[in-house]
C-alpha cells in the first residue's frame, strides 16, 4: 500500500471500505459455498434437542486453538479437568484459555442486549482475556516481528489515530450493507488486526469478534464453531495473506482465505457434531439396556456437556442424593462408559469416547 514502510507506524492505514474491487468472480463463487456450509451447520445445531448442549465444549476448543496461535499451550485433558475440578488446579496457560472462553461468553451476552460491535466492547473483551484493566495502546514503539526478529509491521501509533480508525471500523461493521456478510467479515478482521489497538491480546480479541459477528449477522444462531483451528493448520498462509493486503493491496487472496476458513471449519464442525450425536445415541441405548435404573435424559446431557463430570453436577441436576449419584457413576464406570480419575482430592469421571472425538484432527 502507498506510504507503507515496515519499520514506521502505519498511520496512513486506509479506512474501510477498500477502494478496490473485492467481490471478484473467485470470491463470489467461494462466498456461495462458504455460506452454504455455514447454513448447513446452523441447521444441524438448531435441530439438536438441546442446541446449547455442546457449547461449552466447542467454545473451550475454540479458546484452546486461538490461544495456541499465540503460543499459549495446554492439552485438552488439562483444560477440561481444570474447568470441572477446583480452580487451583489450573496452569497459567489453562487460565488464559478459560479467560478467553469467558470473554467470548461476555461478548455474546452483550450482543443479546445490544446487537452492535463497538470499540468499548472490544476493550471489555481484551480486559476479560488478559484479566486486567488494559485499554487502547498509548505507548509508542509497538512492532510485530517474525521468528527471525525482523520487523514485519508497525501498527498505527497515537491514541487519537487508533480511536479514529476504530470508529471507522465500528461504523463499517454496523452500518455498511454493500458487501456480502462473509466478505465483510474478512474485511473487518484484516482491519482490526492492522489497527492492532491493544498492547496484547489483539489476535484473540479479533478472533472472538469473528464469532460475535456471525451471531450478529444471524449467520449462526449459536456460534458453535472453532475457526481458530483452521488458522493453526494454515498459519504461515494466514500471516502472509495479512501482509499482502498491507504491502500490495491484495485483498482477494486474504478474503478467499477467510471464506475457505469458514467453509472448511463449518464442514469439520458439522462432522464432529454428527459424531458426538451418534455416540450420544449409542451410549443412551447402552445405558437404557444395561442400566435402566440409571438412565435419564438429564444424565446423558450431563455426561456429554463436557468430557469430564463429577457427582456435584448430577446432584445439582436433581438426579439423586450424593450416595445415589455416586452409585450411578460407579455403574457407568463398570460398564466402560466413564473412567474415574483423581484430581487433587476430587474424583472426576471422564467420557473417554467423547474426548477421543474431540482429539481427532
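Q: What amino acid sequence fits the structure above?
A:
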Amino acid at each position: 500500500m502507498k506510504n507503507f514502510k515496515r519499520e514506521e507506524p502505519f498511520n496512513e492505514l486506509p479506512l474501510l471500505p477498500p477502494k478496490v474491487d473485492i467481490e471478484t468472480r473467485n470470491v463470489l463463487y467461494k462466498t456461495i459455498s462458504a455460506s452454504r456450509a455455514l447454513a448447513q451447520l446452523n441447521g444441524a445445531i438448531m435441530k439438536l434437542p438441546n442446541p446449547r448442549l455442546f457449547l461449552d465444549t466447542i467454545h473451550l476448543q475454540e479458546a484452546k486453538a486461538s490461544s495456541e496461535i499465540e503460543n499459549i499451550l495446554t492439552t485438552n485433558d488439562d483444560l477440561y479437568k481444570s474447568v470441572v475440578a477446583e480452580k487451583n488446579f489450573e496452569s497459567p496457560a489453562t487460565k488464559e484459555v478459560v479467560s478467553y472462553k469467558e470473554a467470548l461468553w461476555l461478548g455474546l451476552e452483550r450482543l443479546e442486549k445490544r446487537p452492535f460491535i463497538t470499540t468499548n466492547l472490544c476493550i471489555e473483551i481484551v480486559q476479560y482475556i488478559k484479566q486486567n484493566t488494559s485499554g487502547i495502546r498509548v505507548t509508542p514503539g509497538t512492532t510485530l516481528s517474525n521468528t527471525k526478529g525482523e520487523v514485519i509491521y508497525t501498527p498505527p501509533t497515537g491514541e487519537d489515530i487508533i480511536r479514529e480508525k476504530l470508529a471507522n471500523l465500528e461504523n463499517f461493521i454496523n452500518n455498511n450493507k454493500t458487501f456480502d456478510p462473509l466478505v465483510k467479515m474478512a474485511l473487518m478482521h484484516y482491519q482490526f488486526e492492522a489497527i492492532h489497538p491493544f498492547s496484547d491480546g489483539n489476535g484473540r480479541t479479533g478472533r472472538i469478534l469473528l464469532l460475535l459477528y456471525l451471531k450478529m449477522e444471524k449467520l449462526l444462531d449459536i456460534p458453535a464453531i472453532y475457526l481458530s483451528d483452521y488458522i493453526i493448520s494454515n498459519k504461515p498462509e494466514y500471516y502472509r495473506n495479512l501482509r499482502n493486503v498491507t504491502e500490495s493491496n491484495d485483498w482477494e487472496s486474504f478474503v478467499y482465505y477467510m471464506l475457505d476458513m469458514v467453509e472448511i471449519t463449518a464442514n469439520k464442525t458439522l462432522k464432529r457434531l454428527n459424531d458426538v450425536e451418534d455416540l450420544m445415541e449409542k451410549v443412551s441405548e447402552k445405558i437404557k439396556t444395561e442400566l435402566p435404573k440409571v438412565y435419564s435424559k438429564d444424565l446423558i446431557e450431563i455426561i456429554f456437556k463436557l468430557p469430564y463430570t463429577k457427582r456435584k453436577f448430577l446432584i445439582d441436576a436433581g438426579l439423586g442424593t450424593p450416595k445415589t449419584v455416586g452409585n450411578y457413576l460407579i455403574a457407568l464406570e463398570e460398564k466402560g462408559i466413564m473412567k474415574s480419575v483423581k484430581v487433587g482430592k476430587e474424583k472426576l469421571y471422564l467420557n473417554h469416547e467423547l474426548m477421543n472425538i474431540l482429539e481427532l484432527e
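Q: And what stands out in the fold?
A: The longest helix spans residues 251-290.
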